[in-house]
Amino acid sequence: MQANSHLYYQPLKEGFLDWLSLDMPTLIYMAKAILAACSALIVSMILTLPDPRTAIFTSFIVMQPQSGLVFSKSYYRVLGTIAGVIVSVLMVGAFAQEPLWFIFFLALWIGITTAAGVKYRNFQSYGFVLAGYTLCIVALPVIEHPMDIFDIATSRFSEVMVGILCATIVSDLVFPRKLSNSLHVSERERFENVVKTLQEFNLNTQMQQNADVTKFSSGVVGVHAVAINSAFESGIDKRSRLSLEQLNIEFMHLSTTYHSLENIMQNSQTQMQAKHKKMLQELYLLMGDALRESANLDKAKHKAIKEAMGLHVKKMDEHFKTDLDLQSYDLLVSACYLIMRLFDEFFIYSTSYFSFLKRKDFKKESHELRPMVRFKTHTDNLLLLLAALRGSGVLLVSMLFWILSGWKYGTITVTMAVVISLLIGTLPRPLDAVMNFLKGAVSAAVVAAVYDFYIVPEFTSDIYTLCLVIVPVLAFVGWMTTKPKWTGFSLGFVFLFMSQSSFDLFYKIDPTTFLETTIASLLGVTLAGVAYLLVNFWSCSLSQKRVAKLLRAEIVYLCNAPLNLHRGSLESMGRDMVQQFSTQGRLNVRSNRLVYEWLLVTLEIGGALMRVRKKMKNSPAQFKDIELLLEAIKEYFQTPSEALKQKMLTLLVDARKSLHVSQEVALMRTILLSKIAIPVMREDMCS
Amino acid sequence: MFLDLNLPLDITFLGVQMPTLLPIFVSLAVFMIWVDTILSELGAYKYVWHAGLFRTALFVCLFSFACLTIYH
């Protein structure tokens, strides 16, 4: 009997636990969002602010599942709003009677903030977007009667503040979810994943083309973003934040080495004989112990394994030096070098990881952090220029429409068009986002009409019934914002619903105004969408060309760069750049893969160049021929041509005699001589 | 009964009239951020059941105390 009941009971319990871990957070988040929005509505109604909808809207926009994200987003939202409000007061004060100057400076400001929004990452970019569109929201409605600017500015600011305060207080008080907790979980998952991948790695089998390489590099960028945002949360101290950053950079090095090894092995499957592969695999398997017992890996053990590996490499070297041609020998040397480096980096990464875990338990451990490497980002200037042009262009065209038509609600079109073009520019895949935004806006118009003309006049009598009545819509929007696929749709829905609904101090909407403002808003959305369609000659092959050019410039730069340049800053910059191109630059899966391979190759060549130059610095007299080689490499990557390539390759082959840098030269030779894709535009994966 | 500073109900700042509570709120918020960083560096939040609640309550106490210097 008992066993039977256990049988019935077990799946129920499992189902309940599943529900608790998967659906419960969403429900809690929805409840929090509703609570924040309703309290924003009530507070701003009690304070008789003229537009309570701005407060609800703000509380919705800054609401995020984790407290740290809410704080950070609110912070930048406040900064952006302050900047926007100040600039709009200044501009209306200065140019209210001068339409031409007014429009000129408006366009300039929008252009600058759009570009800054693309240039900066995360919520910083959101702050710039806010600074841009607050100007439209505050300055345009009062352009006919400029004396009202101060009232509008203060009331907008107060509404935004009410919304932000409600959102932050609710998210910190009601079932707070800490970023730091999720950081620990994701860090553990990542470490386990690394160990598993390294254990399963087999040099002999043909690897499947993993299409999700970009996920790999976006992981590094993403963890960096989370670590930044956690700065707004108390409870995670500066020390653990620094060690998280360091862990992230060490993971980045490890993954670069791993993928370089994979890349080189994959591209030279045919030219390697079975016995060589077997020897390499033996070398790799020497790491196995360390991987299995990574928790007990200490310096002594690391040294012992390293020595065993060194002996193995020496044996291989003696065995093959005579009976192999140059190319296969180079390949072996490079593979050995990468495997050794992989082991070293794994050792560093796992030591930091375990000391990070320990620090979580014992806070007062005096583990000195190594000098930090800053995570660097890179944004293409052409991308910025395009964004600025698009932002200003949308503003000018919609202004023209307003002036020519003389429509009373033209300002709504202008505001909407500018807001959308600013907001969407910071999302990945802008074009899809605009389409989803439009869908969301249209559906919101229908729902808003039902609310304005049926539900609100029929069922509400005071603030509290109004709150009760809008709960279903708030819940729906809250649920949608938890689904990343629906970002554009939910944004559009919130935007239009909040601008068209009649949650005012007193009921003042009539069908004609409603229809006209709705049409004006939708027109604005459409204008912004058209701008994305038109000002987007950013095709896949253009992106590829830009990436290749930037990567080549990187190699050229490294031929003369200061020698204390840190590898971490180079790698983080490269990853951030590739990540941005793959989200903004319309790369398809194959070209994404290609660009990623280019990045790996650039990092390897760059690293080898830096190491060679460091060795040269100590004893410059021995390296006459290497100097020539560096010059040739620089020339080739500056202006790639067949003649320069031949020159470089001849010098590379000659350089085999200089024993001090043989490893680095072998690696470069392997990369440049084999079929591995280098960032010299020849293949086009876009068609 | 409390501090009798005789603060006015409204003050004028850069030609704008506003309730005295507003600058008090802003300066207390800045002060609170400072207190918060110190507390978290000291690890005080480890001994608190609900850090957010504690923080909010602390701020409410501070702000109410400041309010009492005006409205008493």
Can you describe this structure?
The complex is a heterodimer of chains A (687) and B (72). Chain A is mainly α and 687 residues long. Chain A has three domains: 2-178 and 378-534, no CATH class; 179-232 and 238-361, Up-down Bundle (Methane Monooxygenase Hydroxylase, Chain G, domain 1); 545-673, no CATH class. Chain A has helices spanning 2-46, 52-62, 67-95, 99-119, 122-139, 149-173, 179-200, 213-229, 238-267, 274-285, 288-292, 299-320, 326-361, 381-405, 410-425, 430-459, 463-481, 487-500, 511-534, 540-558, 567-584, 589-618, 624-638, 642-654, 662-673. The longest helix of chain A has 45 residues, at 2-46. Chain B has 72 residues and is mainly alpha-helical. Chain B has helices spanning 21-42, 51-70, and strands at residues 10-13, 16-19. In chain B, helix 1 (21-42) runs antiparallel to helix 2. Chain B is elongated and about 45 Å long. The N and C termini of chain B lie close together (8 Å). Classes of the chains: A mainly alpha (687), B mainly alpha (72). The interface between A and B is medium-sized, with 11 and 14 residues.
Helix content of chain B: 55-70%
Largest sheet of chain A: none
Share in β-strands of chain B: 5-15%
Oligomeric state, counting identical vs distinct chains? heterodimer
Helix count of chain B? 2
Strand-residue fraction of chain A? under 5%
What integer value in Å does the Rg of chain B equal? 15 Å
Number of domains of chain A: 3
Order of helical and strand elements of chain B: EEHH
Largest sheet of chain B, in brief, is: 2 strands, antiparallel
Which secondary-structure class do the elements of chain B indicate?
A: mainly alpha
How many β-strand stretches of chain B?
2
H/E element order of chain A: HHHHHHHHHHHHHHHHHHHHHHHHH
